[in-house]
Amino acid sequence: MPEAQLDRFLVRLRFGYPPAQGEQDIITRRISRRQESTRVDPVITAEGLLHLQSAVEGIQVDDDVVDYAVRLTRATRDHPAVEVGASPRGSQALVLLGRALAVLDGRDFVVPEDVQAGAVAVLAHRLTLTPSSWAQGVATGTVVREILADVATPPTVPRG
Question: Against a cut of 0.85, is the pTM above it?
Fold first, then answer.
């Protein structure tokens, strides 16, 4: 998929391969089913999904957290290993995922750690490395982790 098209996805996750025993279990379960297809039970209803989406929209985001997301995204554009950094969609995605993580954590506000937790999944696939960085095997996830270490995190103020 062309890199420009990857910017349209909120996150890019990599799961890797299962360990050998896990792979054997997959084959054993398939043999036991005696058919190609399998039934997957739903984990949420359509109504439940709409409720979660609505809950995310109600999550508060302080200006300091928005500023942090913007500074992280802008830092991708200045990193020496990066030819093309993340667009403003990257900043938006950081905040949206931060809001979703806050919901999952039972909070009604985003903390900088929510933004940090999603930064690699949100930003790494949006970067185009310089030819020299690519040839040296630099990983975009490593670049994002370097940026996380370099960009000052806003203080987290306990809410009362």
Answer: no
